[in-house]
Amino acid sequence: MSNHLSGWEFRCERCGERHAPSARLWHCPACGGALAMIGPDRVDTRSIQHDAPGIWRYGNVLPARPGSGRFLGEGMTPLVSARVDGHEVHLKLDSLLPTGSFKDRGASLLARFLRDGGIERIVLDSSGNAASAMAAYAAATGLECVVYVPANASPGKLVQARAFGASVVPVEGSREDVASAAQRAVEADESAMYASHNWHPVFVEGVKTWALEVWEQLGYRKPDLAFVPTGGGSALVAAWRGFSTLAEPGAVLPRLVGCQPAACAPVAEAWLRGDEIRAVSPGPTLAEGTRIALPSRPVQIMDAIRSTEGFADAVSEVEIVNALHLLAGQGIYVEPTAAVAVAACRRAIERGDVSEDDLVVVHVTGNGLKATDTIAALVAP
Ligand SMILES: [Zn+2]
Hints:
Elements: E1 9-12, E2 18-19, E3 35-38, E4 79-84, E5 87-93, H1 103-116, E6 121-125, H2 129-141, E7 144-150, H3 159-163, E8 167-171, H4 175-187, E9 192-194, H5 201-207, H6 209-217, E10 225-229, H7 234-246, E11 255-261, H8 266-273, H9 298-306, E12 311-315, H10 317-328, H11 336-351, E13 360-364, H12 372-378
Parallel strand pairs: 5-13, 6-7, 6-9, 7-8, 10-11, 10-13, 11-12
Antiparallel strand pairs: 1-2, 1-3, 4-5
Helix pairs in contact: 1-2, 1-5, 5-7, 6-7, 7-9, 10-11
The protein binds zinc ion.
The site of zinc ion has 8 residues, from loops.
């Protein structure tokens, strides 16, 4: 790999083993744990390349270069304010990224990283936003994209990925069976790589730019609290990575809040129990993007919450719907998964966990246009 990766390493969250960054690794070869990426990424106002577009204004602290793909407009989404039960909160509108979700940040970086590493074909398992984002940035970097999906996945969720030219392979069985099929396909093909947003550490490095942008947009201030929809945990762990790069030694990080639907809340349950994340049996939820029984990065997720003195919370389906309407009533259209974080923010305000002068950010992870059928049922006359 090229020399801009000097100083970067992959570190296993489970066994601590360190590995040189490689386009051939997606998890720890020693123990199978998730990898974190650690690098020379201290950020201050001088690190920003003001003439570079989107996320690439932070190119100095990203482990890939923009030149290996076409820019699609990823990054520098608006930070707008909204009223939540009398409090002003700042909404980071990653719903306005090119494919409609925050995953564009990670997909843009990961596609370039893999392309630079000699990969020709990316394989992933997803039935939603990650498939759309990876397919778009595969198209923009000249990679082939193959998406493994559950055989019962809603065809409408795959329209975007298909439009970008991805091949879709249906797999019978559980969500884990689908992931295993994708992983096996890669083992049999030297030119292919597993590009899962749930596993790949480079994906998180791209997503961390949302936190850096928030800091810049707040006038180089960190918020006091950040509410983040949490399923696989990439947006939450990325917030921790991003805000940590800004920390002066001893500086206080924003309290990170992992927000989940009660129907599938392994992180919130672990936080309440005060121990580690265990698999749950997911119930039905409108917040499909957070319906993950056992996240791949359990150690990083809990570290992100505990080391920032944050917390996790689980919200009901009614609270999700009410939060979606609350934003829509202010002209902001989000998918139910994004509404989970607004609902959790609202609960925190009601409990008195947010004070009047707290600077609060909610990560709006996905556009309402992603969930037209679901929202149609909620606004039926
Ligand atoms: Zn390991």
